[in-house]
Every structure is written in structure tokens, then in C-alpha cells.
Amino acid sequence: MPHDEEWIQEQKRVDYTVGKMKKEKEELLSKVRAVRGEAQEIRNTFWEDVTVNLDEPDDVVETSASVRQQAELLAERERSYGHMEKNVKQLDRLIYSPYFARVDFHEEGETSEPIYIGTASYRDEDEYLVYDWRAPISSIYYDGVPGPVSYQAPDGRREGVMDLKRQFLIRRGKIEAMFDTGLSIGDEMLQEILGHHASTHMKSIVATIQKEQNRIIRDVSSNLLFVQGAAGSGKTSVALQRIAYLLYRYRDSLHSEQIVLFSPNQLFNHYVSKVLPELGENNMQQTTFLEYAQARVGKALKVESLLDQMEESLEGKTEHKETAQIKGSLEFFRAVEDYAKKLLEGGIIFRDIRFKGETIISKEDIAAMFYAYDESYSLPNRFQLVSKQLLKELERISKEERKKPWVEEEIELLGQEAFLAAHKYAERKMRQNRDDFSGTAYEKEFLARKIVNRRFSSIRKHIKQFRYFHIRAQYLDFLKKAPEFVRGAEGPLDAKTRAAFQEGWLPFEDTVPYMYLLDLATGKMMSSSIKYVFIDEIQDYSPVQLAYLRYLFPYSKFTMLGDLNQSIFGTSGRPQMELIKDIFGEEKAQVVYLTKSYRSTAAITRFTKEILQDGEKIEWFDREGALPVVAVAGSQEEAIAKITAYVKKLSAESNTVAIIGKSRKQCEEAYEKLREELDLTFIEKEYSGLPEGTILIPSYLAKGLEFDSVIVLDVSAATYHDEAERNLLYTVGTRAMHNLVLVSNGPVTPLLDKVPEDLYVEE
Ligand SMILES: Nc1ncnc2c1ncn2[C@@H]1O[C@H](COP(=O)(O)OP(=O)(O)OP(=O)(O)O)[C@@H](O)[C@H]1O
């Protein structure tokens, strides 16, 4: 079809812009080559250009200055090389697709100017050929429709009129689609984008950010932003775009390492890891609560993951549920504080410091040192001081130790190198002391010190890390005494924990109280340089976890994203927002709701919202697609046959088909049968990446992810029977973008009773 004049003119502008970019890239590349050559040259001649002389102390100083100078020269070249490489990559992205929108804007009395918006700005001399999507003026594209608009510029609010709003789909420098729009962000563009297939990595939504999403992305006034949004409403996408926005807005003062994103699991981390690099930004720090906890607790105890705990609860093992609930409450968190306060006066449990099977500093001596300090000294302060004292004491002991027979025995086992070094040392000493006779004594002294130091180094580390504090015993002591501090905690709280410690693991529900006690005693670990904390899937955080995060990051701004309907603990109890306001303070807290689901077709969203008790507020995006299918089988063989047939059918039109089971155990059972018929990957653990094709995955690992087609493994009443599993079923169903099939082995779960019959087909 021939293009109209407008299209031709726009393509000419694309050609012009891309032409400029290509030219700049060529120039940059030749500079890159030159700098790379220089860096290589420095590396090749590094040792020729430094003067190495280690004979006298003065020479050593000179040599090290010379090495440092060369190293700095090299580092400077490598930095500028890295910087240029980054620019080249950005130009590559722009050359592929220079922009996605144009808005024409004028202020009163001025002529209308076209503003082109892309993923990064591009300037030719003084003229902006492309504006960054995060530039102040770009916000009118996301917020407004043609007509009067305003935006926040650095020097105040600007009023004006938007005369045109146009969207482009440009690939490889060619306009593939172009829409003029009167609505907010044109549905046509969104239709086009949402109609695509799923991928194993999350995509950026920069060209089609919606007005309500834009408000979250650009919010800079809230200290706590709480986003409650329906499944697929773009919470995670918005979080990542917001990070990109903040990095741009505060580019002189904010670095990606000062932002941390807590995500539900490693699989999810992997899934979102490409969004920021694709926008030309470095990734923020990404972690999971488990990863943080494991680093804090140390290798000696394996921290139980929420996923492991969920697996148990989904398999019906719930005997410790009540204790877990008490340990997850805010009261329990406060109880740790009360207990820690008492420790100021006495009661800390220490361990003996031992060497070669013998106590060298006893726990009683350590306690005496610790409690010799005035009560006004905080616990962490005292630990610091005691460690210093202990290190001194260790030094004294090590001198004694050097005289012992075992040292002599070990000296004999030392290699040639050590003796040579000892010889050199002895020579120097003799020169210094004008002493010609004590060579052997000096050599022995040197070697004995070396041996003892080596053997004592782990004790030194032990002391520096306060491992003489018997945290496990202390924590068990706290659990025993906790009923004094916590209402309703009558039963024994330590039984499961005690047994777990013996087996070398830390139960999930004990993780926060344990870490908090450790922190209150010895000081916390997290650096205070974090300015922004993002927490995704916030609905799955217990009150103690929230309180602990506040404690860890007292000066940071928080963005929390979640969906109570996807909560794995069910929706009972106090509303999470109230609790959060209690913990974080109401001041500058903002709650934003996202109600429209973009992930799924209208048919799927209409179906899944009916699974919920109160899903009325969820809206769907008008994208066509087949009705969900509920397929009932009379036996397990028949269910497997049905799943196999659906996978074969759906794979033809999908990149990804996910068969989602309730628990890992349920998936394992199905896997044995399905693998005979299908080529599929079983995602058992969070550490595996996400492949294309057909996968089998337990419900809680599929959180936050999406697939072209979803087949729910078994929606029978036997599998989903508990009211508390309603949210889980909703979470599973809402992973589907284009097709949803629910297979049931036997009668269908009553959790689907409320879904009107015209919203699905039964097969
Ligand atoms: N403005 C938008 N433009 C284009 N695509 C969008 C937009 N908003 C959301 N999407 C798409 O919708 C899908 C769901 O987004 P996302 O995963 O961020 O939602 P979520 O709210 O975190 O979902 P869930 O809670 O179900 O995990 C993604 O494919 C995302 O690209």
C-alpha cells in the first residue's frame, strides 16, 4: 500500500536522524579504537615504564609511586574506553529505533514545535533531534491528549497546547506503523504491543506507559509509595521504569548501586534483568529476602526459604502454623527489642575461644570483659570494644604459643621459600642491630611467628566477626522467655527451632527474629548508602519482615508493589497498608491503585476476576482472544492425555506454554508421565533460568512471570479445596497472556463455582 505524504515526510526525518547518528557512531568508533590502542600500549610497556627497585625502603616507596602512576594512567584510559563503548551501544539502539512518539507543543504566543521522544536523547549541535522519555517535556505524551496540557519543568510548571500526538513503531530505521491519537496513549499501539508473544525476559513498556502508571514512575515527593495493583496491571514494569526515571532525574547524585530491588526469587530476578540495560541504564542491586538472610546468618545455618515452607503448607503440613504466625507478628519483633534491652544488664551467652582443643579465653572471661563496660554503652559498641580487647589478648597468647613444641615440629615441615624469607629477615635484623651472631635465633623467631600467625588467623577472624557470641543459644533462650513478652505465646516456641539448629538449618519464621537479635547485639550489616528500596510482591511479606526492612534502611525511600489477591497467606488479618503505615509512618506515604490488567486477553481477565470474592474493581484491556477452557477428565491417564493434546495444539501458536501445578510434589508426579509424551522442562528450583518452549512449574515459582499459554495442571476439588487457595488459583490463572486451559481430574474445585458459564467453554 503506498504511504501518504505525511508518512513519507516522517520517514525522511527518521532517515535524516539515523544518518546523523550513524555518522556520530563512526567518529566514536575511531576514537574507541584509538583509546583501546593506547590502553593496550600502556599494558604492553607497563613494566618498562616503571622503575622497579626494592633494595632500600626509599626505593620501595618510589617504586610503588611509579607503579601507581602507570596504573592510574591505564585506569583512566579504560574508563574513557568503557564510557565510549556505552555511548556506542546507546547509538546502536537509537539507530535501530530512534524514537517512538512525536508531540507538537506550543506555549501561548509561540509556534508549535515537534518534539520526538525516544529511549534516550540525541542532540545534533544545539538541536534536540530526540528527547529522552524521562525529560520533563516528555511527560505530556504520557499524561495528555491533544489540547491544553502542562508539565513540570525544572523552573516551574509550564502551560501550553499539544497540537498533535503521534506514535511510531520503528524497526531497523523503518517506520512500520504510525498512529495519530486523540485518546490517552492510543489503544492501537498498545494492542499491537500486547498482542506479541511472551518472552523469557521482561520487556520495557516505555512507548506505551499509561497515565496512571506514569504518575507512579515520576513520583518524587513520596517517601513511601505503595502500589496495589491487579495481576498484570504493570506493577513490576512500572517499578523498573521508575528506577530508570530516578537514575535519569538524579543522574548527578544517584547511582544504580544505591537502589535495591527485593524480588520474590532468583527466577524472577533473571526474568527482569534485561529491562534496565535495554534502556541504557545499569541494573540496580537485586536481591531476595532469602539471599540477604543467608548472607547475614552465615554458612553454618541454612536458611529455609519461603518457597520450601510453602511447599510444606501446600502439601498439608501445617502443624507449626500457629507458632509461625506468632513469630511473624509485629509484637514478636518488639519482643526481640525488649529482650535485647535486658541484655544490657546481663545474660549474654558467649562461647569459649578454643585452640587445638583447648580453651584459650573462657566464656566467663569474655562475659567479665563485656559487662565491665558501663551500661550506657550499647551492645554493638561493647562488642567492638571486647573484640579489640580479645585481639590484644590473642596477641599475648600467640607470643606464648610460639615457644611451644608443636611450633618447632611444624617449622620442619615448611618449604624452601619460607626458609629463604627467614634468612633474609635474619640478615636485615642483624644489620639493623649490628649483631653478627643471632642469625639462627632471628630465623626461628620469624618462622615461629609465621606458623602461629597462620594458625591464629581464623581465630582472629572469628573474633572480628563476633563469633564468640553464642547467637543460637541466645536465640533459643529468647524463645524460651518470649511468652513473658508476647501475649498469646503460651506454648513452647523453641521446640522446632531447637531441632532445626541441630540439623543445621533455620526455619523461615525464625529468620527475622534471629537476624534482628544478632543485629541488635552486634550491629547491622546493610550499608546505609541505599537511597531507594523497591519491594515487589509485598503482599507476601510478614509484619516482622516489613519492620525489619524499615530497621535496615531507616533513611531510604520505599516503593512497594503488590496485590493482596495474590497473597500466599490469604487475605485475612489487618489490611497490610495499615500495618505499613504503622511501621513506616504516615508522613509522605502515598497509596496508588492500578486496576487495569494489560497482560491477558479480555476473555482471560474476565474469567480470572470471577475466581476472586471481590474482584469487581479489576478492569480488562480490550484485547481479543479465545475463551478459557475447563477440561474435565475422568482419570489421571485421561487428564495427562488432555494436557498433552493441549500442549501440542498451543505450542503451534505460542513461544511459551507453561503447565502450572500447585506444589512441586504435584509437578514431580505429573512430570514422570508427561516427559514420555512431551519435550518439556521442569522448573523445580528458583535457580534455573527460564527457557522457551514448554515448561512445568509449581505455582509459587510462577509468581510475577507470564506465558503465552497456561495449562493449569489440576483444578479438581481434590487439589484446590481450601478457601485459602483461592488466591493461588487466581495467581496461576493470571499468568496467561493469550490462552488459558484448566484441566481437572474429577469434579472441578468449588472455587470456580462463581464463574458464570458464558465466560468459559467446557470440554
Ligand atoms: N503500559 C504498558 N504498555 C505495554 N505493556 C504493558 C503496560 N503495562 C503493563 N504491560 C504488560 O503487561 C504485562 C504485565 O506487567 P507486569 O508483569 O509488570 O504486571 P504485574 O502487575 O507486576 O503483574 P503480576 O502482579 O501479575 O505479576 C507485561 O507483559 C507488561 O509488559
TrEMBL record:
Q: Which UniProt keywords apply?
A: ATP-binding, Helicase, Hydrolase, Nucleotide-binding
User: Which molecular-function annotations from GO does this UniProt entry contain?
Assistant: 3'-5' DNA helicase activity; ATP binding; DNA binding; hydrolase activity
Q: Which Pfam families match?
A: UvrD-helicase, UvrD_C_2
One record GO biological process: recombinational repair
Q: Which domain of life is it from?
A: Bacteria
Give residues annotated as binding ATP: 229-236
GO CC annotations? cytosol
* PROSITE patterns with a match to the protein in the record: UVRD_HELICASE_ATP_BIND
Q: Where is the UvrD-like helicase ATP-binding domain?
A: 208-601
- Name of the protein: Helicase IV
List the source organism.
Weizmannia acidilactici
